[in-house]
Structure formats: structure tokens, C-alpha cells
Amino acid sequence: MKFDFLVLAAVASASTLTPNVLPLFVRNPYLSTWLGSARKAPWEDWPMFWTGSHLGFSVMASIPDSGKIYPLIGRPHDSLRRGHKLYSITFPEYLGPTFDASTTNLTYLLHGSSLDEPVKITLSFLSPITPSSTLRQSIPAAYLTIIAEGCSNVTIYTDANGEWVSGNRANEIKWDLHEPKVPEESSEKTTPIKTWKWSRQTEQHLTEFYDHAEWGTMHFTGPADAQHEAGTSGLLRQHFAEKGYLRNQIDRDFRRIMQEEPVFAFAKTFKLAGESKKKGCSKAEDSAVFTFALIQDPVVQFASARGLTLMKPFWASHFASPDELVRYHYNDFKTASWLARNYSDSLARDAFESGSESYQDIAALSARQVLGATQFSGTPDDPIIFLKEISSNGNFQTVDVIFPAFPFFLYTNPKWLGYLLEPLLEHQLSGQYPNDYSMHDLGAHFPNATGHSDGNDEYMPVEECGNMLIMGLALANAFRYDTEPAFVQAAAPHAVANAISSAKDWSRSVDRYGFDLRGHRDRKTNLQTTGSKAAEKWLTRSYSLWKQWTGYLVRESLIPHNQLCTDDFAGWLANQTNLALKGIIGIKAMSEIADIVGHEDEAKHYRKIAATYIDKWQEYGISRDQTHAKLAYTWYGSWTTIYNLYADSLLCFHVPSSSSSSSSSSSFSTKVHQDERRKRGFGRWFGTAGDQKPIGGGGDGDHDSGDTEKPFIPDKVYQMQSDWYSAVLQKYGLPLDSRHLYTKSDWEFFAAAVTGKKTRMEMLEAISLWVNETVTDRPLTDLYETEGNGGYPGIYFMARPVVGGHFAFLALERACGGKAVEALRFMDEEPAGKNAVDVDEALKADMLEAKQKGWVGDL
């Protein structure tokens, strides 16, 4: 399989930040492989699962005419003998990693060949993010491309072990090699392949062992001309080091994972040497692709409206068998890599314009981690995305984990947010949840969404009601503002799409090349990419729930009783200022929802309540000197990050409008724009269309007329908090509140998105410094100390999808047709001679006034 080398070499641009952990193969909660200690050489430790446990995966290189063996990743050299007469273990020159949203590249120079020129090796790990192709995104598989440059032949060895299919090393596994014939009807693009398959001898469906799946079959695929061998790890590696090849043999003595550790290996020779060396080195390039796929069926069980259901993977609606899927995925490399590259380029451009080069890296580092918590399921007529609350407690479809992640989905593909919310709506509409507030999650532990028929899920009633209403309206607005998936164009003009030749290519949701059809409306949810009518239909279907949850907020959100908010590690607390704000914005959101579906009287009712409550909230929650928001109404001398203020701007409540409604029943897109976007659908693939509309390019229509009403939350609240955050900022970021120095990175980005430019850049610089210096040693944590070494605060969060909150800047840029950010520009102008907030004096003043009025005890 020959590839465009220039394309492969450019898949990940230079990175400015140096995180301690980088993604390698990250597709779902169980196919999740990371490079730990990424600031060190990759051969100093084994790759790891997101929990930190080792995964058996290694790569070595051999230059035949030198006798040198070069470890590249993992520790396969532990199996080799020092001082062996046939080979010598030699460490390469490591040029370091680069990464973008979908790709991590590790690059090396191999010195010591008979020629003076080193051989350059790049290991390119691609977990493609493809917003325009839900089908491709659903495939539980990733790519490893090995790129060789130089003028000496080089052979690459790679192997994997049984730890990919079980978290318990005592379990027995079985394996085989599949060498499919190329179908006669296949095009010349089809490459002959061979696939290692292994699984547990006895699978345990829908169970985990230390978060590893205990069911599913691993597929490790390479080109058919690669050599293969299965056997004891040490023996295979020693043979390769001595001979430089594998023997195409299979040890069929099935056994436990670490009992004479069986590994499944490929070796591929790259012939870079020219026929004649008389004129010196003549560099050549070559590459080969390998894929890793974890095939599971079912993927979860879900208490749907029809009862507890074993849910099949989404790809099963399009492919007749796992083998067909694996073959398609392998031959789809060029298409998938172009789509991923275009998303990465779009993200990099938007993130740079919205923040800085460092923000480019933070967004890129976060993207695969978000999707690494998801499983795509359902059918073309009922697509569903399931989500695991990774590391914090493993809950299934946790509402207050989806909420911090949802800016990523609004930016990347709003329709995917709908697929995330759908199972929560379906379950509660079916009457399986007894409480009148929104449920916290669909199940205590992923992958089992068995519900909470007793109503005893984690108690966050105001939190979850507010979250659902805010996300519901945000999605409806994305429909109405015609927010497209985030990609520029599908591929280069000369590229040819990879068509689906499956017996199941009848799907109405994708075209024959696997791209989402813009006009498709699924049978059940009426989710569409764009249109006011789509928003109305989607909201109407669950209107009873929106109204029910709003009723709870009307009763309980202004003065919240003792309860948890999403930051449950901080404990129970009454009268939480930030939590109350979320509930009040939720009520305001309901007024917009009612307006969209045509219930004008109810819209006015909720709008009036929200307006009354927000005035009261300012009275109760803001310090007497008007310098900051308090942690709780009666906690004088305290302060908090009111990250829920972000929702006010995201939902267009801060955008000047001719009415209190942020919307109109008419479409915001003119027919001209709609026609252009249709042309840019499949036409993008051939490069015939223009680029995506600029991220802050403004709306397609203007629904303002007449007098402009004041924003829901006054400018002064925004300015007050922006000034306060700048004053209390620590070395590595903004603490969550006055109780501790720890912070949550998702909430930092929510908060920073609605501050002035100076404060926003200060916060971004602090977070970037933390990424570079933190000692945390797992996939990007969202909970860390803002001082000291930036480590864990005794609570170990890792690999959580909440880092989708890092996309808060980008989602806000796209909101309200580009007007949301414009409405906050007033904070960018710093008045001359403006004094910084004196934090200590402000807190003392708050306490003193409270004492004088008898509200608190002694200072």
C-alpha cells in the first residue's frame, strides 16, 4: 500500500507544549493506549492504559548491515541479552513527539549504518476525528503508520500481547491469524492484509476488571507482505534481533496472558538502499500501515423505552462482519487521515485565533480524550452515543460530565451532542425514573445503563436540571443557527473517497463514501443538522421533561438547599451561588424553549420568573462591595468561580436583542447560504467547494429590529468577575473557590471565555505553564493544584471527557451566529488608571459588614 509521503509527514505539526502523557490509540473507554512519561524517551517504559497499567506493545528497528537493534517504544530490549555476538542494543536519537487533534508522531534517527547518513523513522499514531463522517468516528480502530527515510534498508518489528483484551493477567487467551483473500470485486485500492485476532478464552460480556473490558476481540492488522509470528515474547524478540526476520509461524499453545507471555508480531522491511552506492547516499522514503481494532458486540446494555436492551455497535448497521469492517478501515486510511487532518487544521486555526499557540495544543491534546470516553451505538435511524465517566466513578451517561464536555461537541459536531442526550431523554420519557428532577446518570457503572428505578442516584437535582435545560437549548440554537460540523474540506482535490462495498450499504444516513447526509432525518428523534423546524421538533418531543425540570428549578433554584453540585468532591453545601445561577439560567432557557415550540404564554411566565430570580441572585450572591461573587449566600468573606456565567453568553442571553427571546421562528439562513452549503457537502471531497465559514463570521441573518433590551445578566457582573479572577490567579491557574488552591481546568476555560482579553490571556498562560510543568502522570487531569508542583490534590482524576470544556472559547465563538463574543468586547478596553482589586481588603470588608449587621460570628 503506497501512500503520499508528504501527507503522512505533515499529519502533526510542531507542538509548543510538552505534556507528560500523550494519546497513541484512543477510540473508546477500552481501546485507550497512551504514552506515559512523554517527556522522556519512549523506550524507557511500556505504553499504558488510561488507568496507568501497562499494555504490551513494542516496536524495534534493525538495520541489517549494522547488527544494531534499536528499541523505539516499550521495553522489548529487556528480552535481549547485552553483549550478544550477533547484535548490539543501540538507542536511537529521539527527536521528540509532535501532536495534533488526531495524531501523535514520534520521530527517531538511527545512526550506525555502513553509510554516514542516519535512517529517520516516524511512528505516526492516528485516531481520526471525522466530524463529517459519524460512521468513521464510530469505528473502534486506530492506525499506526511507520515511515522510513534514508538510504539503508531497515526492518521494523512490532508486537502486542494479551493485556489488550483483559485487565487480569491470570486470564487465558486464544488467538489466530486471519489472511483474507482480496474480494474479486475490490478496486485496485484494496491492499492485501493479514490480521492477528485474540480474545479471552471465556469472555465475560459487559464486565470490567480494573476498568479493562473483559469481552471483545483484538484485531491487529498489517500488510500481507509483512512477516508474522506468534509465540513467547522473549523468544520472538531474541530471534528477530539475531536473524532480522520472523518465521511466519504460530504457537497455538493457548495460555494465560503472562504465562510464557504470548505476543503477536509483525516484521516489515523497508528497502531504502539504491541498486548502486557508487554515487553515495540516495535517500528514499517508504511507509506501511498497521491497524488496531477492538471489536465488541454488544457494546453496552441500556434500559431503553422497550426495556433492557443489548446495544450493538453503530458500525454493525453498515458492515456485515468484523472482518469486513477491518478490511474497510484498513483501506480507508487515506480518506480517514485527510478528514482528520482537515479537522486538526481547522481546530488549530480557530484555537490560535481564539487564544494562542498554547491554546492550539491544549485543544488538540483534549480532543481524542473526549471521544475516548464514548461508544457509538444504535442504528442509522436511531444513532446513540454512550459515555463513560472515566476515572471519577465510572457512572454511565453522567449528566454533569456531559455538561462540561459539551463545548467540544458544539464545536465539532452539534448532532453528536444530540446523540449523547438522546438515551437520557428516552429513558426518562419512558417513566423509568421516579423523581421530578433530572437523573444524574443512567447507571452506576459503565457499560451497564440499568437506570435507577428507585430514584437513588447521586443527588444533584438543581445541577442536573440546569444542565439538561442549558444543553437542550444550546443544541436547538445550533440547529437554528445552522452550525455545521467543524471541518474545512474533506480532502485534497486529487484524493478519491473510499466507497463502502458492504451488503449493508443501504443506509439512508450516509452516502456510499461514508459521509453523513445533511438532509437525513432519523426516524425517531428528528435530529437534523440545521433548521428551525428541526429544533422545534426535537424540543417538542421532550417538552414534558423540559417543563417538569423547570418546575423543580422554579421551586428550588433561587435558594438551593443543602446538596451537591457537579464538584461533588468539595462536599455538600447550601445556598451555593454558582449552583443557583445555573438553575436560574435553566429557567431562562426554558422560556426560550417554550418560545421555540410555540407556547408563548409559558415562555412569558418563565421569562418573568427568571428575571425576578436573577435580580434576587445578585442581591444574595454578590459581595456588598460589588467586587466578587461569594461561594454561598451566607458565607461572607468567601469567593467562587462562577463558571455557570458562561451559559448566559452561550445561549445568547447577553446578545442585544429586540425581544427577550434570543430566537425567531424564522430560519436564520438565507436560501443562498443553504444552497451553497449543500454544494459544499459531497463537493468538499473533490475540493470543489470553499472553506468553512469563519468561526466568528457572524450570523446569516439579522433578527434584530426595534428597541434593544438589556442583557439578562448585567455587564457589571461580567466585568466584576473578570477583574476578580485576575486578582486571585495563582501560578498554574484559577482556584475553584476560596476553600482550596485546587482547580478544575474545564471550569477555568468556561470562566475565562467570559472575561476580558487581559484576564483570559493570563489564565491561558497559567494553564499552559501547568501543562508543561505538572507532575501528574496520567492522561490529562482536570483537577489539580494551582501551586506547588501542579499535582493531584489527593483526588486522582484522569482521562476524563470533561476536558471538552477546554473548547469553551471555540463553542462561544460559534454561538449566536458569531455575536456572543462580540457582546463581551466591552471588557477588552481597560480604563486608564484602573486599580487592581485588593483581595484581602475585599474579603475583610465583606466579613466586617456581615459582623456589624449580626449575620456572622466573630471574625
UniProtKB/TrEMBL annotation:
Domain Glutaminase A N-terminal: 117-342
Domain Glutaminase A central: 356-478, 533-664, 712-810
Keyword Ligase: no
Keyword Magnesium: no
Record InterPro entries: Glutaminase_GtaA (IPR052743), GtaA_central (IPR032514), GtaA_N (IPR033433)
Key words, A-Z: Signal
Pfam families xrefs: DUF5127, GtaA_6_Hairpin
Top-level taxon: Eukaryota
Region (Disordered): 683-710
Name assigned to this protein: Glutaminase A
Organism: Neurospora crassa (strain ATCC 24698 / 74-OR23-1A / CBS 708.71 / DSM 1257 / FGSC 987)
